[in-house]
Amino acid sequence: SAELCLLPALAALFPPLPGPGGPSSAEVGLGALPAELRAAVRALVGNLDALFTALGLREESFAVGTLSRVIAAELASYAPARNRRRMATNKASVIFVDRTLDLAGNSVHGSNCALWITVKRFPVYLLATVTYLNRYTSVYTLSYICMPGCISLCIDPAAQALWESFMNFKQKEAVMEARRHLVEAASRENLPIKMSMGEVTPEQLSSYIQLFRNNLKALENHCGLLQLVLAMVQTLKHSQTSKWDSFLAFERLLLQTIGESEMPSVLNQLLPMIRSYNKRTKDDYTCEDFLVLLVYMYSVVGEIESGKELDIAEEKVKKALVKAICDEPEPSPVLQKIT
To answer: Which PANTHER family match (predicted)?
Structure first.
């Protein structure tokens, strides 16, 4: 948007964890990092400088975490960056955050933002998604209107306003905003739309979009808006959506249980739910799901008092997870990397 740019996380750039052979939590410089990590940091600094040069930006950097401070310092002392900052006309704040400092936030399944879009990704591009307009028009190509199916190329004001609401509103509010924009667009095109009150459903949004079907002029006028709403419909109807809602409810239950009980009893509650592939139903959690839940639990609980009871409970969970992972007929890339 005009005010915010989120770059995808770099899978290869992960802060080194403290421990034997690793750096301490004290302030470290680039020279204290392993050679491979040093190269990755330098590559990132070069890429960021190229991006800021293209945008004509003079950045003010903020860092949270040891590795982030190293990256911010490297960017500040990078010779081409110093020249760019003298010439740049625009200002921006850049925030670097170590990924290890917010594991709980990354593992939660909240739906406060409408942008957790589960629709299919475009090949190669990490952030562009695919929406399908072919069901809504007899025209075989819309490439002369705008790139069909990419929700990030919305150039008309209504689509831009809806895109902003996707980022700034909670999901329920964003869905209602999508309905309002559709109703206004249909009214301007004199399409026979009937406004209904109450909760907005994906089926209702789909029925509104159907009004634009085979009306080439209306499609051309509101192509960006229709693609955004289609992306939302595909997200709301996706099989992952109900699973995420279930996950969120279970996370809240775990949070409550952790507040009232010791960690061993929480792990013992989790144990019966860990099932092998041939014993799972479509509603049961997978091995990856349990790994995410464990990351969430251990991140929010803070310091844990060790003891024999905890050791026994953790060992049972470990054995159940190992068996479940070994019984996977086609392990996912994450499980393959772990094994």
So the answer is: VESICLE PROTEIN SORTING-ASSOCIATED
Cβ atoms of residues 158 and 181 within 8 Å: yes
Residue 209 and residue 271: Cα distance in Å, rounded? Answer: 46
Report pLDDT digits (tens) over 243-278.
777 778 888 888 888 777 788 888 888 888 888 888
Domain extents for the chain?
8-101, 114-237, 240-338
Concatenating the DSSP letter of every residue in 92-140 gives EEEEEE-GGGGHHHHH----SSTT---SPBPSS-SS-B----GGG-S-S
What is the token pair recorded at 329? 């007929």
Radius of gyration of the chain measured on its C-alpha atoms: 24
Low-confidence ranges of the chain (pLDDT < 50): 25, 118-130, 137-149
Cβ partners under 8 Å of residue 330, min gap 6: none
Does the pTM of the predicted model rise above 0.85?
no
* DSSP character at residue 153: -
Q: How confident is the model at residue 77, as a pLDDT?
A: 93
pLDDT at 330: 87
**Closest by Cα among 237, 250, 244 to 175:** 237
CA distance 171 to 117: 11
φ and ψ at residue 311, rounded to 5 degrees: -60, -45
Do the Cβ atoms of 30 and 38 come closer than 8 Å? yes
> Contact, 231 vs 128, CB < 8 A?
no
